């Protein structure tokens, strides 16, 4: 049983961190607000990072162009939501969901389709060559960002939250914004589906086996290559979904957003251990919490909190929390 | 004499030798041959980039390390000169202090990144350097009291190097003999010396070990070389040369800001130039920089022409807009990684010596 030797230490870091900063913040309700906000932000970061941990960790493709799919998803969402102003402007929550849902689906479809082309034309010739992968995907990122500028223009575009998703709920004195709750739900859904697919289905079994010993699985008659293309497409589609969530969180999108979030998601998947969905989730939650706590306690240091966190984690576990492979 | 100067690493291709000589002579006589302010600025930028790209090639081409923090060291050099000149006035001692301090900072940073990244997997290095460089860029824009924030710092250089200083009344061959010209030739000499020094480094026994590590890290370690030490030394050396290139840039522009020396676009340019010129050849940096910067400076004019010609087709016009020049460079870059992996220098050498090509 896999669960018997589950490594609980990284998981324990999340509540430990939250409890450790409590005395510094003082007020309990402020702490609750910050903690919930941090966890929710972590969930959004997890959604944007989840695709990359598949591509990086399972396929061993150093994709520096992943941010393009995030930006693409966000821009597609601006177009879809822009065309559904009646539904986003409604005060009824269910109508808002009806607007956001197709935006997410279309963003995932477009990002997945572009991911398929990206894999075919850029990544496929350079499997196994890490240096070239970095160079090629950086080139792909430049082209993608410029093409987004051609289609949507180089300017920042607003992506307002639908009416009923704005504002906050109150638990005592602690304010919790509604959108963050939605983000937590979507993040948990993504995590659940990924963990279930990878851990409990035959496709997940084949992917994990293919990562361990590709030739063995191929000799059993399974087409690992096709399976891995599928992993790349799913990774890109998840990036598109993450782009929608991130764009709605920021409430505006810029063509450069892909390059901006690259750093954040790299930190998350390094901390988590490449390829581990659970590691990425814990890494993202820690990043979200530290960002919110330092933003409150020492705003000037907020930017470096991520890097300090990464350094600390890597000094403890150089391979990240849950290393999937020994590459 | 020439053997010693070039560290016994000759161009090994007649065409390449001619090209290199053309670049060298072109840069040496640029103020007299290519009139106009824009041309001289392009020539000075080529001088800076030759050093910057050659220093990056030491890391990427010779040691096989992908770093995205190279512009950070470039920026440190530029900020060192800018900050010292702003706070101490336009003196030579300010330049000296700025240079020394920035070299020391670069040394310590490169050492820290190098030693730290040794503990993690090799492929993490690229990502970690990207994160560090981004943090540094934001830091530079935030510390506005010190760095001038997003506006940057405009400063004066010693009188001898400023345009106001004229050492001859009469212009010579239509070029006024002023401090600007002296500054250009100072950069020229510094760039030449630094590139020859880099050539010396990569052709030393040390450089050979770096190449061995690039080819097969495991074997190099097995032979008895401490890969860790060599990698760290290589990244420190490369950082120091990049710092000097940054100081050259600041001296020429008499200005420095985050976009001028730290932006990620410069990092992309450097990557592009290394690939186009040829990885693992210091000469590639010279050829690549000259080609790239001239193209970059005049490509936008060409695209403007193209987009006006395609005005009838809105999509085509949008693709050919001068603002989209980076798109075309990106396409060029991807194509050159695929079909031109050894770059200009590698191709020319292979053409000149077909047997030795598959070394």
TrEMBL record, chain A:
Q: What keywords does the record list, in alphabetical order?
A: Amino-acid transport, Cell membrane, Membrane, Transmembrane, Transmembrane helix, Transport
Keyword Transport among UniProt keywords: yes
Q: Which InterPro entries match?
A: ABC_transp_permease (IPR001851), BCAA_transport_permease (IPR052157)
Q: How does the record say this protein sits in the membrane?
A: Multi-pass membrane protein
Task: Show the stretches that span the lipid bilayer.
Answer: 36-57, 64-85, 97-122, 179-198, 227-249, 261-289, 301-318
The cellular location(s) given in this protein's UniProt record come to: Cell membrane
Mention any one GO cellular component term assigned to this protein in its UniProt record.
plasma membrane
Q: What are the GO BP annotations of this UniProt entry?
A: amino acid transport
Main subcellular location: membrane
- Organism domain of life: Bacteria
Q: Which GO terms describe its molecular function?
A: transmembrane transporter activity
Query: Family, per the entry?
Result: Belongs to the binding-protein-dependent transport system permease family. LivHM subfamily.
Name by which UniProt lists this protein: Branched-chain amino acid ABC transporter permease
Query: What taxonomic ancestry is recorded?
Result: Bacteria, Pseudomonadati, Pseudomonadota, Betaproteobacteria, Burkholderiales
From TrEMBL, chain B:
The record describes its membrane topology as: Multi-pass membrane protein
| Name of this chain's protein | Branched-chain amino acid ABC transporter permease
Q: Which UniProt keywords apply?
A: Cell membrane, Membrane, Transmembrane, Transmembrane helix
Report the source organism: Variovorax terrae
Q: Which Pfam families match?
A: BPD_transp_2
Location(s), subcellular: Cell membrane
Q: Which InterPro entries match?
A: ABC_transp_permease, LivM-like
Bilayer-crossing regions: 59-82, 94-116, 122-140, 182-202, 236-255, 267-295, 325-345
PANTHER family per UniProt: ABC TRANSPORTER ATP-BINDING PROTEIN (PTHR30482:SF17), HIGH-AFFINITY BRANCHED-CHAIN AMINO ACID TRANSPORT SYSTEM PERMEASE (PTHR30482)
GO terms, molecular function: branched-chain amino acid transmembrane transporter activity
Gene Ontology terms, cellular component aspect? plasma membrane
């Amino acid at each position: 049983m896999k669960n018997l030797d589950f490594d609980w230490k990284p998981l324990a870091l999340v509540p430990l961190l939250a409890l450790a900063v409590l005395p510094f913040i003082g007020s309990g309700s402020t702490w609750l607000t910050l903690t919930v906000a941090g966890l929710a932000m972590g969930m959004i970061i997890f959604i944007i990072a989840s695709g990359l941990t598949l591509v990086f960790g399972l396929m061993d493709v150093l994709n520096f162009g992943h941010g393009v799919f995030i930006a693409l998803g966000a821009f597609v969402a601006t177009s879809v939501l822009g065309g559904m102003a009646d539904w986003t402007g409604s005060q009824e929550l269910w109508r808002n969901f009806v607007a956001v849902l197709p935006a997410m689906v279309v963003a995932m479809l477009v990002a997945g389709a572009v991911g398929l082309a990206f894999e075919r034309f850029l990544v496929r010739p350079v499997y196994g060559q890490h240096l070239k992968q970095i160079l090629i995907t950086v080139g792909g990122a430049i082209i993608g960002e410029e093409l987004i500028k051609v289609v949507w223009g180089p300017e920042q575009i607003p992506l307002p939250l639908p009416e009923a998703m704005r504002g906050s709920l109150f638990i005592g004195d602690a304010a919790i914004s509604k959108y963050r709750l939605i983000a937590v739900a979507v993040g948990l859904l993504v995590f659940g589906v990924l963990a279930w697919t990878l851990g409990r289905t035959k496709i997940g079994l084949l992917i994990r086996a293919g990562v361990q010993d590709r030739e063995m699985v191929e000799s059993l008659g399974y087409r690992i290559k096709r399976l891995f293309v599928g992993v790349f497409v799913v990774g890109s589609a998840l990036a598109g979904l993450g782009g929608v969530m991130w764009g709605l969180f920021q409430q505006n999108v810029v063509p450069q957003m892909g390059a901006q979030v690259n750093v954040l998601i790299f930190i998350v998947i390094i901390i988590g251990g490449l390829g581990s969905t659970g590691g990425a989730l814990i890494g993202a939650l820690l990043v979200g919490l530290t960002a919110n706590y330092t933003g409150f306690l020492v705003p000037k240091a907020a930017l470096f909190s991520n890097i300090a966190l990464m350094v600390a984690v890597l000094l403890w576990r150089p391979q990240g929390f849950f290393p999937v492979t020994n590459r | 004499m020439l053997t010693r100067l070039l560290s016994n690493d000759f161009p090994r291709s007649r065409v390449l030798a001619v090209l290199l000589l053309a670049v060298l002579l072109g840069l040496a006589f640029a103020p007299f041959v290519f009139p106009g302010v824009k041309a001289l600025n392009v020539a000075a930028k080529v001088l800076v980039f030759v050093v910057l790209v050659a220093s990056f090639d030491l890391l990427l081409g010779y040691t096989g390390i992908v770093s995205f923090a190279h512009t950070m060291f470039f920026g440190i050099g530029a900020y060192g000169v800018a900050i010292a000149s702003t706070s101490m006035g336009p003196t030579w001692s300010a330049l000296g202090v700025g240079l020394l301090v920035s070299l020391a900072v670069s040394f310590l940073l490169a050492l820290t990144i190098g030693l730290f990244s040794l503990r993690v997997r090799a492929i993490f290095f690229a990502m970690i350097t990207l994160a560090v460089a981004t943090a540094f860029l934001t830091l530079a824009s935030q510390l506005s009291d010190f760095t001038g924030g997003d506006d940057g710092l405009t400063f004066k250089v010693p009188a001898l190097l400023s345009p106001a200083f004229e050492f001859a009344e009469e212009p010579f061959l239509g070029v006024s003999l002023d401090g600007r010209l002296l500054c250009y030739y100072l950069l020229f000499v510094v760039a030449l010396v630094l590139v020859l020094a880099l050539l010396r480094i990569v052709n030393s026994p040390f450089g050979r070990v770096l190449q061995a590590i690039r080819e097969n890290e495991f074997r190099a370690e097995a032979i008895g070389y401490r890969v860790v030490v060599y990698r760290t030394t290589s990244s420190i050396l490369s950082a120091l040369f990049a710092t000097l290139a940054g100081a050259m840039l600041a001296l020429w522009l008499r200005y420095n800001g985050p976009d001028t020396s730290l932006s990620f676009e410069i990092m992309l340019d450097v990557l592009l130039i290394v690939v186009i010129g040829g990885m693992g050849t210091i000469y590639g940096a010279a050829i690549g920089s000259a080609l790239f910067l001239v193209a970059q400076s005049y490509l936008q004019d060409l695209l403007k022409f193209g987009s006006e010609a395609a005005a009838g087709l809105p999509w085509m016009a949008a693709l050919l807009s001068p603002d989209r020049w980076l798109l075309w460079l990106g396409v060029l870059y991807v194509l050159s990684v695929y079909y031109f992996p050894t770059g200009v220098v590698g191709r020319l050498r292979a053409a000149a010596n077909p047997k030795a090509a598959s070394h």
